[in-house]
């Protein structure tokens, strides 16, 4: 099963690089150009220079920057192999003030083909993003950011180990980015390392975030073997592992925006939806969200629809309808809210096929319900659909069946910080 390994991380020498809070960044794929420049304004050694390089030859520049920082002692390898405890403390809902804390483990994990059933994906990926990460790996031979994965531990054995180890000392790093407080502990004790590694020997890992980077790591390993290049660490990838039943694990929904349909008729669409859904008008977005919350709590399959004129709640009448539409899929996949929306409404009733969705021709995504409503109100989008979050157990059930959800089915919050540790693939 999962092969978890301690490693010598490449980390900042704060005496030369500066404050750790000015050296880290958000995941590369959610950083705007304005944010990227702000990171560099705060500190020219920010990891964004490596993780999201720009310029005429950005990947070569990242490789040269990495070499320079290592030569000048900005980045140094840890003396001993270790595992790294990573904690995020945050509010799951700023308005409601619900404090959460998620404690996880940063480590190396042996790369496995998905067909082996040890590391399991849950979401489709896009080739463009994989090519970008592949070019960066070729230039730097490092993992700058961590893949986020989940594991099953009903007795919370590993969580108790992490809690005990973290209670023995103050965190090596601690800072707040305004929304999340990030903390990191370094674990070098051989007995502790061995115990944690043994915990994972019988477990599977479920990728929560970072599918592109995992597939890229597989491609990079194949590439090195084809080139006859010896790279000791290429059989492993940097991962952050969290207990899937941890109270601090939060998944937000990703909402759908439909745009560019020339003959869009909302009344005709709602009439067609009556075959599959109970349809209830609601006064505004607040009432729509309340209805979604109620449906989520009570296990209903529902989503909110807004067409600029009015909000409606669509609640599925009979989940059995999906058996005839997707006979080759598992019940776990068929009963996902996002599957119902894509298959019944977007494809069957609106004519937006899967290729169209993948290319984002008439479909785009946002995590913000407010942004979705504004886009419709302004006329930028024809309509929007607000969804409830996918449950963690649904994610794992689909992955366990060897299936992948549509793109943008989940949004794990908070996003892992980049820059605490770097995985140097040239190291054993």
UniProtKB/TrEMBL annotation:
InterPro entries, per the entry = UCP033563
List, alphabetically, the Pfam families matched.
Answer: DUF1015
Listed name of the protein: DUF1015 domain-containing protein
